[in-house]
Amino acid sequence: MADILTSLNPLRWIEAPSTELDSQVTQSLFPMFQRLAAAGAETAKILQVALLRRVQVMCDTHSTRQGKLFTEAERLAESLREVHGNGNLGHAWAEYLRDASERAILCMDLLRQRGDIFLEHEAAGCPPVFFCDYETVMDGNDLPLKSNYVLLRMIPPQGVNVDDTKRPFIIICPRAGHSPGVGGHKEDSQVGVAFREGHPVYLVSFRREPEGGQYLSNVTYAEAAFVREVMRLHPLARLPVVVGNCQAGWATLLMVATNLDLAGPIILNGSPVTPTSGNIGENTLRYMAGLFGGAWITMFLSDLGGGIFDGAHLVQNFETLNPERQLFMKYVELFRDVDAASEAFLKAEKWWGGFCLMRGDEIRWIVEHLFVGNRLAHNKAYGEPDRRHFDLKKIRAPIIIFASHGDNVTPPQQALNWIPEIYDNEEEIRLLGQHIIYMVHNDVGHLGTFVSSRVINKEYNEVASTLEAIEALLPGLYEMRITDIQEDAGHKSYSVELIERTFENIREFNDGHDDGGPFAAVARVSELQAQIYHTVARPFVQAAVTDISADASRMFHPKRLERSLLSSQNPIMVGYKSISEQVRNSRANAAAENPFLAAEALYFKAVEQAIVVMRDWRDMGYELAFHMIWNNPWQRYFDNPHEAYRKGTTLDDMRWQPDIANALRRIAIGGLADAIIRMVVLLVSDRGGIRRDRLARWSRVLTEDEPFRSLSADHLTEITRVQTAIVTFEPEQAIETLPLLLTEPRQRQLAYAAACYIPGSRAEMSSSTVAMLQRFADVLGQPSIVDVIEDPLAVT
Questions:
Q1: Which end is more exposed in the chain, N or C (fewer Cβ atoms within 10 Å of the end residue's Cβ)?
Q2: How do residues 565-620 score in pLDDT, each as one tens digit?
Q3: Residue 271: which H helix or E strand, with range?
């Protein structure tokens, strides 16, 4: 190595051969240009795929719909010609004109009523909207860490009987802009299903205004206190089921991860735990932060509100995602069926138009840890102000996840991708003793995952009736499938099967494109922008905002104005009340075959189609702009520190972990309970899934029979974890050492009979299950059993 004076000598470089300089420059710059070219090619590929997919979907969808519109137009023209030929065109027009005018008047009066209901609801503080009565059990304002959350006990309607010894259901309402009520605003709801099964039902609600100094950690603390209170009120029941809808889903994960004693099953419905996941050419919502600013926007809006973030902003974003539905067709359907739809419309709008508020610190945490930073999905989320780590790997409660391909707010990728992000492999889930079950619906939308009657009466009802068996499920990753619909005297029944899955099954929901880099860049820029805003602009914004201006910013929000301006406070609307009463008394509906009704329907379809076309072009522009801004080669360097790189732990690496090594040392130690659990683990591992009837038998053995009934839940969990580790790493030795666990002939007979009883009839067993049972018989010296119908442990 030359000294510094020699290196700085200009003669050294002048005298150096040009070939040597060219070689050094080439060696240093060429790799950089190669990396830039590769990154540019990847960006170009993503842009090409996004463009082609968007255009293909638009062509397929809109050409089909356009063809239907032309067909209906031809049919309409023929109908008009026929009516004109009969000389009834003028009569049909007059009939339609009167009907449409009356419907317009009734619609305006309904909008007036909606405005009045909105103002009354706002004046009352936006209380919950439920189909049944309720009473307050516990208030978060009375806890050491104060919050605006409250625990409500739902009072069953007349004729519904509830058994307090049954497992309670706790439904947590999402604070995503709306007032509480999404899980229980109608009879066909999560509350209604739990009532029909005889379960006590509690609901975690919240007041509109947050408490002063409230953080998300306060909310987590209150929710955990509520669950413990329900456990105290039902000492004879099993641990409660906690249901988290939408945003309440990831909040439920936070609560259970920091309160390990709350180990009852948790159900997540349409919960965006990995909000930046999705497929190219789809899922436009995930690009919004990169196009319209990150966390500093929510900070600014909160400052304009005097430190309070208005949930109406979230509702507005949700509506603009599907403008054809939320801003147009909702009112079209009301206008076309105003006579029958008025009651349902007002009930739904009462909940939809109740806007909650959040503190600025709360919404900033949510944005930075989920929707921009994606920290929760990388297991890097910390609470404020206590800085507690929300380690999702510590959760021991069974996790049941609902998702849907038709959900454009929380697609399956956002509901499921956190699993392979956090865990190294599916074996780690098993060895940690965790149960994760997911179910993906084909077409239901976001709200439908927790309010649709067909989902509630099928998927949710089946899960509610299968929970006892699910809790007895061996650790692992499973998919729940509900099939074989059978009609019996007008009643539907379903066949439920839990199929063991791998991370590859979850990755199949993705398109294979690695687009995590640009979101990491967005997260880094968001942090910088938030810091700049906090340092440079925030003091002046906060100083300029007064209580009056903060209230005005909420009062004049477009979502509130569209309701309040059409209320009875507007003198123009007052007259509709008396006019609508006269119209109802003399209502004259147009005949169903009136061609102008068909023309009306065709017009509305054409307008809807135009809005959908504009929405699709908008979404395509958003996606292409996002990738051009954030997925270019220079951003690859910028986002490098924030991308999540990790070395996956292999099964061989995990073998040497202390708890696994200790379990393997106990391969020849145990008793009847250890042997039966080991054999069941071997059967499930060999088959790869288990039906509900088999789960039910296994659940009955664990909860009602000795030696399991006398074991504590923690002891049973520990045995299951140890035997799962043994079967995972040493399956052959696990079988060969069974006689060492069962030293007495009677124990061997009972253990083998129990192993044969749980799978059920031999005729329904797979060949691998039969072969495994035969191996048990050979090792334990037992004669082969054809069928075990009665529980062999029940008579001991």
A1: N
A2: 999 999 989 888 889 989 988 989 999 899 999 999 999 999 999 999 999 999 99
A3: none
Please report, as a single letter, which amino acid is at residue 352: W
If we measure between CA atoms, which residue out of 407, 491, 483, 485 comes closest to residue 451?
407
Written as six digits, the tokens of 328 are: 């147009």
476: left (phi over 0), alpha (psi -120 to 50) or beta: left
Structure tokens at 190: 């999560």
The string of pLDDT tens digits covering residues 56-78 is 988 888 888 888 999 999 999 99
Q: What is the average pLDDT across 696-721? A: 83
In 163-215, which residue ranges form alpha helices assigned H by DSSP? 190-196
Cα–Cα distance for residue pair 126/598, rounded to 1 Å: 40
Residues in the chain, total: 796
Query: Cα separation of 466 and 468, whole Å?
Result: 6
The residue behind tokens 């037992």 is 782
Tokens for 34, please give them. Answer: 């190669």
Q: Are 263 and 498 a contacting pair, CB within 8 Å?
A: no
Helix segments in 589-744, DSSP class H:
595-630, 633-639, 651-655, 658-665, 672-687, 692-704, 713-729, 731-736, 738-741
- Scanning the structure block, which residue is given the tokens 């509906």? 589
**Bridge partners, 266 (sequence order):** 242, 399
3-class DSSP state for residue 608?
A: helix
Report the alpha-carbon distance of residue 525 to residue 482 in Å, rounded.
44
* CA–CA gap between residue 308 and residue 356 (Å, rounded): 10
Q: 374-382: long-range contacts (C-beta < 8 A, 24 or more apart)?
A: 374/274, 374/275, 374/276, 374/519, 374/523, 376/250, 376/253, 376/254, 376/273, 376/418, 377/273, 377/274, 377/276, 377/277, 377/417, 377/418, 377/421, 377/422, 378/421, 378/422, 378/644, 379/421, 379/422, 381/254
Burial category of 470 from C-beta neighbours within 10 Å (exposed 0-12, middle 13-18, buried 19 and up): buried
249 in Cβ contact with 271 (< 8 Å):
yes
Alpha-carbon distance of 46 to 54, in angstroms, equals 12
Q: HEC profile for 361-386? A: HHHHHHHHHHHCCCCHHHCCCECCCC
Q: Which pair of structure tokens corresponds to residue 759?
A: 């799978």
Indicate if the pLDDT at residue 453 is higher than 50: no
Q: Pinpoint the alpha helices (H) of 453-594.
A: 453-455, 461-471, 503-507, 516-532, 538-544, 547-555, 558-564, 571-585
| 637 pLDDT above the threshold of 70 | no
Residues 6+ apart with CB under 8 A from 652: none
CB 247 within 8 A of CB 174: yes
CA–CA distance from 467 to each of 10, 239, 426, 612, 696 (Å)? Answer: 80, 11, 22, 41, 10
% of the chain beyond a pLDDT of 90: 32
User: Average pLDDT over the chain, rounded to whole?
Assistant: 84
**Angle, helix 89-123 to helix 571-585, in steps of 10 degrees:** 130
> How many Cα atoms within 13 Å fall on the side-chain side of residue 503?
15
Q: Are strands 399-404 and 149-154 parallel, antiparallel or unpaired?
A: unpaired
Determine the residue type at 410. T
Cα Rg for the chain, rounded, in angstroms? Answer: 31
Q: What is the DSSP annotation of 643-666?
A: S---PPPPHHHHHTSHHHHHHHHT
How many Å apart are CA 581 and CA 298, to the nearest integer? 45
Percentage of residues in the chain with pLDDT exceeding 70? Answer: 86
Q: Are 753 and 785 in contact (CB under 8 A)?
A: yes
Measured from the Cβ of residue 589, the count of other Cβ atoms closer than 10 Å reads: 13
Distance CA 354, CA 343 (A): 17
Least Cα distance to 690 among 519, 506, 479, 530 occurs for: 479
Tell me the H-state helices in 86-215: 89-123, 190-196
Q: What is the pTM of this model?
A: 0.85
